[in-house]
Amino acid sequence: MADFPRIRERSVAFFLLGVILLNPPLLSLFGLGQSLGGIPLLYLWLFGVWALLIALIGLTTREPPPHGGEGGGEVGGEGRRL
Amino acid sequence: MTYWVILLVAVGYLSLLFAIAYWGDKQADRGRSLITPWVYTLSIAVYCTSWTFYGSVGRAANSGVDFLPIYLGPTLVFVLWFFLLRKIVRIGKTERITSIADFVSARYGKSTLTSGVVTVIAVVAILPYISLQLKAVSASFTVLLHPPGGPAPDALHGPLLQDTAFLVTGMMAVFAILFGTRHIDASEHHQGMVVAVAFESLVKLVAFLAVGIFVGFWLFDGFGDLFARASAVPEIARLMTLDAIGSPAQWVTLMMLSMTAIICLPRQFQVMVVENVNEGHLRKAVWLFPLYLFAINLFVLPIALAGRLIFPEGDVNPDTFVLALPLAEGLQTLALLVFIGGLSAATAMVIVESIALSTMVCNDLVMPVLLRLPWLKLTQRGDLTRLLLGIRRGAILGILALAYVYVRYIGESYTLVTIGLVSFAAAAQFAPAIVGGLFWKGGTRNGALTGLILGFLVWVYTLLLPSFAQSGWLPLSFVEDGPFGVALLKPYALFGLVGLDDLTHALFWSMSVNVLGYLLVSSFDRPSAIERVQAAQFVEVFERAEGAGSALWRGTATVSDLYNLVSRFVGSEQADRAFAAHARHRNLTLDRIALADAQMVAFAERLLAGAIGAASARVMVGSVMKGEVVGLDEVMQILDETSHVIEYSRQLEQKSRELEAITAELRAANERLKELDRLKDDFMANVSHELRTPLTSIRSFSELLVDNPALELEQRERFLGIIVKESERLTRLINLILDLAKMEAGRMEWSMAEVDPRAAIEDALAATSGLFEEKGLALDVRLPEDLPPVWADRDRLIQVLVNLLSNAVKFAGEPDDRVTFTASLVNGRLRVSVRDTGPGIAPADHEHIFERFLQAGGSLADKPRGTGLGLPISRQIVERFGGRLWVESKLGAGANFIFDLPLLQRQAAEAAR
Fold first, then answer.
1. Mean pLDDT over each residue of chain A, to the nearest integer
2. B753-912 has CATH 3.30.565.10 classification
3. Pairwise CB contact (< 8 Å): A61 & B650
4. Cystine design at B271: which of B43, B162, B487, B605 (Cβ 3.0–4.6 Å)?
5. Taking the domains of chain B in order of start, what are their residue ranges?
6. Cβ–Cβ below 8 Å for B650 and A38
7. Tell me: the pLDDT tens digits for B32-70?
8. Which positions in chain A touch B227 (Cβ < 8 Å)?
């Protein structure tokens, strides 16, 4: 149960990271025709970030599937008043 | 290459696919599923159609990395798999979803209208996309037959080629019918088809990578060389910058479109959700599939650059670079492999898409209508499986025929990518209803319908109709001047909105009206009972047990009615098996029960939904129910009860956890109490023992005196002396016990004052000097001249000192033993130590000796050499002064009793602070 919210938070963080890194305006930093070791920087950047994202997805799948439903552990203050 | 060779290869390859699919189906029938996480992943790769295979290079040759967002978007969606995909797949299983239309309809109250609307949108949106695949196959065929440089024939209108496109379409139809509609399956799995599609994904990846490697290392000296030569030509170098991609808005649009497409395209939904045999496969596929996309896109830009470099005149269509490059080098075999790869991409898409669409057309469009036509009396007819299969087969044929017609008449003017994007934009219209429906219980049927229809209409107006105009079906003035010359209604600049590319423009308008319509209508709507039930089933799929909303039917149905109903749609064999499994699961004997309970009705409805979709299943089950559907109030009550029960059980869990914690605390407290009780008993026993010893001797000597009045005076005085001494010991003991009791109860009176430790120590030494002399022990005193004052009770301090010194005398009993008394300042505290060279104390006893009545060596059986109260009291006193008392010793190496006390200045300083 304890790892549940963490997968969620991590996924959201990774998603936002991907959105930021792979879209303008950040993307335009790398799209000016620069190259690194003969390879266009834009090409390197896009595929590099892509590979990173794939690795990060792999990270979120590593935890074993928790049994039962999601969010079952969240008992609000109401429950404690009983 | 001759026409017949190519045709033979194509037909041979498709036959191989038939064989693979057949084998896959046979294995599945024997219960040995070939679907592994890898196969599942590869089947999702049906996302990469011929559009990827040929079109990406074409797009890259014109606008650089612009092709990439289409593949980055799905990767981003897969990052969110845990929220999104996992939930959709789980719902797909619990609700036995058969298609995306079924999914939307089931979410919004199993509404037939919704499923019909989704189906219509899907068919209209996907038809051009299927045509695109057929066109790609024909085009690749043409390129193989007439390599670039030769005369370019008309791609589709030559009699031979016409046959090719037709032949391929026909074979795909046969394939889809054979493996997509083999039988009606309650779980709607087509394992043979999935295995074949996975195989095709592998082939297209290998073919594309082969071209990439060929370009990099055959045509050029590695990719560095390729990039270097491309940079030398300014026009081509531009493709490696962001200038080439057009507007940044379009980049974002493409990414958003592809994010929705990976879920909303009917074929993606089919392979990812409907064909999923094991939810666990998702865990592997979510990173393997993006990896597949990564691999198949790696060489797109290099191939495009190479194409531009090698065909500088622009006479070769960039969409065919993948084929034209090997052909230009005379590599016929590689070209043939590429052709097979493209064929794989196209056929896989066409097969899955046509099966998905035919299921939708059958379950969500035709069947609901047929079931509602009273004169057909379908609800009373016998075996309907043949009817279902017939409809699906007809739908496949119809869809493929339409696609063929479309490609013949309209497919000419548009490049591959454009058609694909138009389809994506239509499929994106499903996204608000699906994503909203997954996470927002408030979304209603009317809201979803409003959003879908509005979004679709705007899509038709801003993308589909202009594409017709460009193909010549409508006057071009429709696009350029607006309908009837009304400029405000120009489809590419609606209401004068200019500055966006066509796609972004269309997506902005269609998604705006879609989302707003969905939200606004939903929030003013009053959803029906079943809508609320289904909303809860979807949104809370992980919290609810299966069948929680089962009590939706109030009427009754007999088991045999239900059984007959199900067997008519899925066949009696499957129905037998499913009912038997259900009975076994619930420990029921079917023969003995006549009326089905709510749970069984729900089970039958789900079973039926797996074959004909949720909406039709509800209609059918309704036809055998006697009685009425539960009213809104009752459903809400049931729902409330369910959520109350859930909440209640959570609270119970919480409470039982709290109780456990309290129990543990109580147990610990109880242990402590028992321990204290035992200590008290020990204490009482010890006290009694200690008191009895002097008392016994007093009494016995007193009795001697009473009984023998004629005792000699000397004797008598000796006895009286003993009595006095023992009485004193008794008094001392009682005083100590009283002290201890007072101290422990906190009622001791302390007269704290500034004490000069040197004076106190000297007093104590003087008081005990007699003892040392008596025993003949040597006492070393190391006392500094001046010691700073401490805050203490002077008499008590002396008591401690005397106690330690007299202990040393008692235990260091041998004449040559020494006692060393040291006082010093250590770390700003007064430290006093009394060291003897006696027998010492075992480390295990170091704490023991500070307990009441216990002495080193332990038991009461040993002859006591003291009251056993001195050390405990001393420790209490020292602690009261803010110090510590401890012992350092080893057995046989003497003992060193040490205490330290804080100095007065420090205490004062601390108090001041």
1. 71
2. yes
3. no
4. B43
5. 3-420, 429-544, 546-630, 638-745, 753-912
6. no
7. 888 888 999 999 999 988 888 888 888 888 888 888 888
8. 35, 38-40
Banded model confidence at residue B453, pLDDT cuts 50, 70, 90: very high
Tell me the torsion sign for CA atoms B427, B430, B434, B440: positive
pLDDT computed for residue B653 by the predictor? 84
Inter-chain touch A57–B241, beta carbons under 8 Å: no
- Give A-chain residues touching B37 at CB under 8 angstroms: none
pLDDT at residue number B186: 55
CA gap B175, B173 in Å, rounded: 5
- At B456, the amino acid letter reads F
CB of B838 within 8 A of CB of B813? yes
For chain B, the average pLDDT equals: 81
Q: Measured between alpha carbons, how far is B854 from A82 in angstroms, rounded to an integer?
A: 50
B905-908: long-range contacts (C-beta < 8 A, 24 or more apart)? Answer: B905/B788, B906/B828, B906/B829, B907/B791, B907/B882
Indicate the residue of A7, A39, A69 with minimum beta-carbon distance to B542: A69
pTM of the complete model beyond 0.95: no
Q: B3-420 is classed in which CATH architecture?
A: Up-down Bundle (1.20)
Q: What is the pLDDT of residues B785-842, one digit of tens each?
A: 888 888 888 888 888 888 888 888 877 766 677 888 888 888 888 899 988 887 878 8
Torsion sign across C-alpha atoms B902, B905, B907, B909: negative
Q: State ipTM.
A: 0.79
Fold of B638-745: Helix Hairpins (1.10.287)
Q: What does the pLDDT average to over B689-698?
A: 82
For residue B382, the model assigns a pLDDT of 64
pLDDT of residue B518: 93
**What is the C-alpha to C-alpha distance for residues B66 and B813, in angstroms, rounded to an integer?**
99
- Cβ pair A7:B82 closer than 8 A: yes
Please classify residue B866 by burial: count the beta carbons closer than 10 Å to its beta carbon, then call 0-12 exposed, 13-18 middle and 19+ buried. middle
Paired with B903 in beta bridges are B790
What Å distances lie between residue B347 and B204, B264, B340, B355, B372, CA to CA? 11, 20, 10, 12, 36
The answer, yes or no, to whether residue B863 has pLDDT greater than 80, is no
A–B interface: beta-carbon pairs under 8 A: 131
Show residues of chain A in contact with B655, CB under 8 Å.
82
> Which of B88, B94, B221, B240 has the most A C-beta neighbours within 10 Å, making it the best mutation to test the interface with A?
B240
Which region among A62-76, B196-210, B257-271, B756-770 has the lowest average model confidence (pLDDT)?
A62-76
Beta carbons of B275 and B190 less than 8 angstroms apart: yes
Q: Work out the end-to-end distance of chain A between its first and last CA atoms, rounded to an integer number of angstroms.
A: 23
Quote the DSSP letter at residue B35.
-
Mutate to test the interface with A, among B241, B247, B294, B435 (most CBs of A within 10 A): B241
| Of B143-152, B247-256, B265-274, B775-784, the least confident | B143-152
Amino acid, res. B671: E
d(CA A2, nearest CA chain B) in Å: 15
A 10 A CB-CB count for A50 gives: 23
Return the structure tokens found at B604.
């039958």
Instruction: Looking at the complex, report in whole angstroms how far the Cα of residue B201 sits from the nearest Cα belonging to chain A.
Output: 19
Cα dihedral: B294, B296, B299, B303 (round 10): -150
DSSP state of A29: G
Task: Round to whole Å and give the CA distance between B837 and B812.
Answer: 6
